[in-house]
């Protein structure tokens, strides 16, 4: 089953999403679905004491940690 939702975005966020759509050859719905899945995974990880970030593959060091999710 699917649920249809309406959503209001700021101009800046809409522009950022449009850029991702262009670069990934995807569509807005898919980009937003993936973003929500990432947010849910971050919330679940946070409950387990994990952190979300960007890791340098060679050194395996976290370069950027996302906080406030």
Question: What does this 3D model show about the protein?
Answer:
With 69 residues, this protein is α+β, with helices and mostly antiparallel strands. 49% of the residues lie in helices and 13% in strands. It has 2 helices and 2 strands. It has helices at residues 11-24, 28-47, and strands at residues 52-55, 62-66. The two termini are 27 Å apart. The model has no long low-confidence stretch (mean pLDDT 94).
Strand and helix map with partners:
Layout: H1 11-24, H2 28-47, E1 52-55, E2 62-66
Antiparallel strand pairs: 1-2
Brief digest:
The protein has 69 residues and is α+β, with helices and mostly antiparallel strands. The protein is 49% helix and 13% strand.
Note the main attributes of this structure.
single chain, 69 residues, alpha+beta, two-stranded antiparallel sheet, 2 helices, 2 strands, 49% helix, globular
Strand adjacency order, main sheet:
1-2
H/E topology pattern: HHEE
Number of strands: 2
Helicity range of the residues? 40-55%
What is the typical, i.e. mean, pLDDT?
Answer: 94
Overall form: globular
Low-confidence stretches: none
Q: Which class of secondary structure composition applies to the elements? A: alpha+beta
């Amino acid at each position: 089953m699917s649920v249809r939702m309406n959503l209001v975005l700021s101009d800046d966020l809409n522009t950022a999403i449009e850029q991702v759509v262009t670069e990934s050859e995807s569509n807005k719905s898919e980009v937003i679905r993936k973003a929500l899945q990432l947010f849910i995974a971050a919330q679940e990880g946070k409950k387990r004491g994990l952190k979300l970030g960007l890791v340098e593959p060679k050194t395996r060091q976290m370069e950027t940690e996302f906080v406030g999710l």
